[in-house]
Protein 1
Amino acid sequence: VRYRSDGVRAMMESALTARDRVGVQDFVLLENYTSEAAFIENLRKRFKENLIYTYIGSVLVSVNPYKDLEIYTKNHMERYRGVNFYEVSPHIYAVADNSYRSMRTEGKDQCILISGESGAGKTEASKKILQYYAVTCPASEQVQTVKDRLLQSNPVLEAFGNAKTLRNDNSSRFGKYMDIQFDFKGAPVGGHIINYLLEKSRVVHQNHGERNFHIFYQLIEGGEEDLLRHLGLERNPQQYQYLIKGNCPKVSSINDRSDWKVVRKALTVIGFSENEVEELLNIIASVLHLGNVQYGGEDSNACITSDIQIKYLARLLGVNVSVLTEALTHKKIIAKGEELMSPLNLEQASSARDALAKAVYGRTFTWLVNKINASLTYTSDSSKNYSVIGLLDIYGFEVFQHNSFEQFCINYCNEKLQQLFIELTLKSEQDEYEAEGITWEPVQYFNNKIICDLVEEKFKGIISILDEECLRPGDASDLTFLEKLEDTVGGHAHFVTHKLADAKTRKVMGRDEFRLLHYAGEVNYNVNGFLDKNNDLLFRNLKEVMCMSENKILTQCFNREELSDKKRPDTAATQFKASLAKLMEILMSKEPSYVRCIKPNDSKQSGRFDEVLIRHQVKYLGLMENLRVRRAGFAYRRRYEVFLQRYKSLCPGTWPNWDGKLSDGVSTLVKHLGYKPEEYKMGRSKIFIRFPKTLFATEDALET
Ligand code: ATP
Ligand code: MG
């Protein structure tokens, strides 16, 4: 800016130094916005200063600090309440507040999509948002109950759905979408939760250094003496086969005993009766007993050798001992219209037992979600009219050494979300330009629909082929599935197998793997177990036993209709595909905001910024692409009144007050500041500024 003396320049430099130190709070203001190095440098600077939040336009990027920062106080909540998004430093509360106000003023349902890899801070972010609403939204006594229940649903779902993994001591092992419903006064009056794909395999097996779901340890460590006696449990997790696989009974960051108290109380707040809690805990204990059921006898004819276990088990499940024993050792087959019991061999019997444990736990989890939903059901006697803010906390892109069916589903989910993201961001950019009467210049981007189709297309997508193999009687196996993939989608640009790969790729691929070229990178999937996991079968006679249970929760989880149903239930992948399609519909009908979470290092340490790891995440999260789209046209845009209010002091013509049309005021102002015509455009209600440096010069002028 032209009218500066040398003294002023010195002051301006000190302002610049501040920016050098803390970086820019919106990536769109990066001069070199296509440079990944500049992007990461900006993150690093801010992280060092404990500034964990940065925007890309309206997207919030968050880096897990791995320490408690003093930025979530009630004062902070107040500071963000009703304030313009850009006038305060980036914060999760700003996103929460912005969604809330858009919902209130525009009457449009909102959703906040939180993504990032395990340990990046998604669940913490969603809890912060919920707390923000609980504290800042208006409340009556009745609303207070809803708020309490909304908040208390977290410890309950985390107890049953989270576990310690190598990546995160409190890792969510399910995806979660939660609607918060607000009445016409803007008070939260209800909620609804949808859960996705609980990692049931964890019930029966954990990798070294990992644990089963928290609730098992909480019950064993925290449960009262009487309770444990009633459940036949010992106060030692190492006694239970289903808890010892990871050899990790204690975690330093977790206090199972006090967590137990929190969960117990939460169950009461949510409205579980004593009876329901008892039945729920009977089920949890029975899973542990089930794990200790031992088989012996001849290999081809398994029998149960642990008498006491099975008695406890039968009592807790509320079923007959001999019927249960038979169901755990035999399989019912129907031959020529006659029912026969055919003995299981040792391996089959243990896998039937594990299948029962997984089914019981998985279905109980779903029951729990339904129960919470019932307690959150909107019950105002006035009209059923409410607005919604949805929160999505769902697993990010996963690439491990060994990737299986679960990673396949998770990464497919991320492809779908990426597609939605691209469509909606581009669309909202385009809409804004149109609304403001500014010409939209199309942006080039990679459309990942081609990968979604590869996975989900009817008849010829990977899921269809998998289902086909699952249904095919005879010699179908994981390897025939792989062969069929090669025959069907072998020519696809995003699909490779060992056989089809070039020499270089072949070196890093097993013969039992296929590779997908995801938008975020390549992943090799090992086909071993795909068919079983997709089938997710539970022998019919085990289902029958569960239907006969006296435990009311179990009879809700296993109903007779399922037995009479001639049609096979949908496979796991097909169910997941359908639930994702529904999720997309839900999200499409709302106005989205995004929170992209980044994990700074693999050792859960504060202050460590692992650049390689972060670069991967910036790529997986598609942040550079996001920035490119956002910057394709104009870096910065502000409503006229906001712009004028902030900068009017820089121009004698607009100071102290501008009485005329707002756009004329802004014109006068920017002309005085020497903006060149190619540097900005005037829309209907906003000024669009093409380059960050223009804005910086204006900001600096303000500081002098
Ligand atoms: P997963 O996919 O495994 O569920 P996640 O993304 O949900 O992972 P979180 O459980 O939210 O990860 O975060 C992991 C841990 O990181 C938390 O238990 C907490 O210790 C720390 N953490 C995350 N966000 C913050 C924050 N904003 N402030 C302080 N600590 C945080
Ligand atoms: Mg989580």
Protein 2
Amino acid sequence: MNFNPKMLQIYLVGGTQDTHHDSYEFLAKVEEAMQAGITAFQYREKDSSTMTADARLVMARRLVEMGNRYSIPVLIDDDVQMALRVGADGVHVGQDDEKIEQVIKEAADKLIIGYSCNTAAEVEKANQLSAIDYLGCGPVFETTSKVDADPVLGLTKLKKLNKLSTHPLVAIGGLSLENIPEVLKTGVAGLSMISLVLNSKNITETIEKIKTLVK
Ligand code: 3NM
């Protein structure tokens, strides 16, 4: 699937660590979210996960197959080789992950490339790299979903980074139904979240509410 900034509008991120290491619950929740209308999904299985490399590969294949059924792009966090192997639509890399130049070499023209940035210097560097499709910026607010999260950005810094960036930007970290309207006012292209959706008692209803805010 070719990149389109609209894909960033409701961008769900998650791995089995976000559903108490229960693979069935994880797949069921992602499927409900896809049915309800998320616009992209990123498979992010963290080191805290108990899954073997083979199990991650099987999970990634299932998610790509699910994404194909719902015509929703599936990206893989921090693993270009896995993304290429399972036929994913893209890869997302952080500042500490594989070096961005190396990722571009391996993935340009094959995968959508997302890159985490949370300082002006990082955004300026990303502006020089035209193979990057979008930037992920956060955490905008406090989050409990990422153990090694950078300091909280807040809305003022987010707005500045968005203005500075030549790439479309997706906001991540601590997003809630209450703060999404303020986040959208910064002009970002999209919203990315884990717990707002995966911890929701009613995923379909939550996504319906996000959709009305994004419109
Ligand atoms: N990346 P929640 S914050 C995966 O700042 C991730 O780059 C972040 O989870 C960053 O929506 C984060 O539950 C966790 O706050 C987002």
